[in-house]
Amino acid sequence: MTKGTRETHAPAVRMTRNTVGVISSVDESVVDLLGWRPDEMIGLSSTTFIHPDDQPGAVAAWVKMLDSPDGVGLWRGRYQSAFGVWVWVETANTLEDPDEPIVKTLMTSVTVDQVSMEEALYARGQLLSRLSDALPVGVFQVSLTGDVTFTNDRLHMIVGVGLRSSIDEQLSTIVAEDRPVFEAALAAALADRPVQDIEIRIQPIPDVSQQAADEADEEESVCLLGLRTLTDSSGVVSGAVGCLSDVTERAQLRRELEVRASTDALTSCLNRAATLELVQRTITVPDRKFGNAVVFIDLDQFKSVNDSLGHAAGDRLLIEVADRLRSAIREGDHVGRFGGDEFLVICPGVESPERATEIAERIAAAITSTVDLGPVPVQVRASVGVAWTAETLDADTLIAWADSAMYESKRMGRQAVTLFTEPGHGMFSVIV
User: Fold this and answer.
1) Staple partner for 353: which of 42, 310, 331, 388, CB 3.0–4.6 Å?
2) Assigned domain for 161 exists
3) Which residue is catalytic, options 99, 341, 396, 403?
4) How many CB atoms sit inside 10 A of residue 167's CB?
5) Can 403 be counted among the known catalytic residues?
6) Domain extent for 60
7) Whole-prediction pTM
8) pLDDT tens by residue, 168-197
9) Residues 83, 178: one domain?
10) CB-based contacts of 213: which residues, under 8 Å, 6+ apart?
11) Facing residues of 335 across strands?
12) Tens digit of pLDDT for each residue in 90-143?
């Protein structure tokens, strides 16, 4: 017998309680079982006598009994005795008289062998619980019916939600766009197909009933979800266990590295490789209703700026031009630095060649101005070419069209926007 428990051979105790567990009557047999007189227990809640570690299970079993169609439930746990030790008991609870509900309870002592088994199970469960709480990941267990059967503290900290009975409620802070991803992953795990490293986003909403919510990050976090199938002794799927890891910092670092890898360090525009990739993605699936356009910009007389004022002045000019390009484009357009003094503006969803020309005109007008780079103001001008298509093309072809149109503007030797039309239709210029 484990220290702090007591074996008894007392007769069964009959007790009545209301639906919130307050004891309304108990027979004299309780003296032999627990050492308390009936009057010392009547009027008190059952939880007054239940071991603190057993109370969550007792409450869960009580609620399940009240909600069950037949109103019958069993629970096994430890009651405090008048002798200062904990006594293992089993209660059979029956809900009677729905109009004036009372719960009739038959409480019996648990044998030495049963106590040893219960305490072994308790010790194992406590060990698993403590181990899971020490993990840096959130852990949860879910049944086939979607009931949550286990969680650790870290999970509540990550999702910002206290203990809930269903998995939908427990993980209710998954952002709406990612919920179908989670549901598909859970369905796969419950169909005996393990899931590994699914990325989902969490938007915690602090839960005042959960202490851990104070530590929950109210900003959107990125998590990795893993799910493993659970089976019973016969190999039949009984549920799943999941792990949720907060990888927000790692995701932010990855995004920062991706941005650095795709960004021109001087102008903060897309670099050449990222520009080519984005053009290809934009025109891979043609939009025959709108089409797509690219605008090629080449600064005129840029070499003379570098030669007369120095490369630092040339860099400042490039930065200024990049800023003006960004201020002139539409929402959804992108600016890339294609070469030394060459820029490319990617314009998805352009209705017509005429609309593409209007966009290019606005860009050319934004660039054309005087910039103070040192001793004397510098007049900035650019040659601008634009290409539009509603067909499926490769990026090199569309960019080559815009480049050809830009050189036509440069050949004309005046500020103009040249639109490249598809082969066989020639090119025409629009004077700005």
Assistant:
1) 388
2) yes
3) 341
4) 23
5) no
6) 13-118
7) 0.51
8) 999 999 999 999 999 999 999 999 998 888
9) no
10) 156, 160, 161, 162, 204, 206, 207
11) 345
12) 899 999 876 778 999 999 988 756 555 555 555 555 545 555 566 678 889 899
